[in-house]
Amino acid sequence: ADRMKVTIASLESKVRSLERDGGKQGEMAKMQAEMEHLRKEAAAANRRAQQVKDEHVASFDRVKELEAQLLEADELRREMHNMVQELRGNVRVIARVRPLLPGEDNVVEPIDKETLAVSIPELD
């Protein structure tokens, strides 16, 4: 009987030990599942970071391209502005008129809608 009690106590101790180990295994399985979940989240975060980095590089390249276009357009604008200023000066020179001298009152007479007669007055 004592022997049976000792055997029963030993078996109960083993059962408690196995139950503790079983609890640890369940806890370990939970931790492994959580670790796998965190690995997946980290991989997704790395993919997103790479995507953001790629978008940043593309945006930076686009900004450089637009800056180059802006410089080119600004240079063209300056050239055209200078050309307009030069043409204005040429028009002023061509269209410059001096005051009429005495006797130059009627030197231009219209012949028809498209023709003018210009007479050269004789100077005294």
TrEMBL record:
Keywords: Coiled coil, Motor protein. GO terms for molecular function: ATP binding; microtubule binding; microtubule motor activity. Gene3D superfamilies: Kinesin motor domain. Signal peptide: none annotated. It comes from the Eukaryota. SUPFAM superfamilies: P-loop containing nucleoside triphosphate hydrolases. Residues 1-86 form a coiled coil. Residues 90-124 form the Kinesin motor domain. GO terms for biological process: microtubule-based movement. Belongs to the TRAFAC class myosin-kinesin ATPase superfamily. Kinesin family. This is Kinesin motor domain-containing protein. It comes from Ostreococcus mediterraneus.
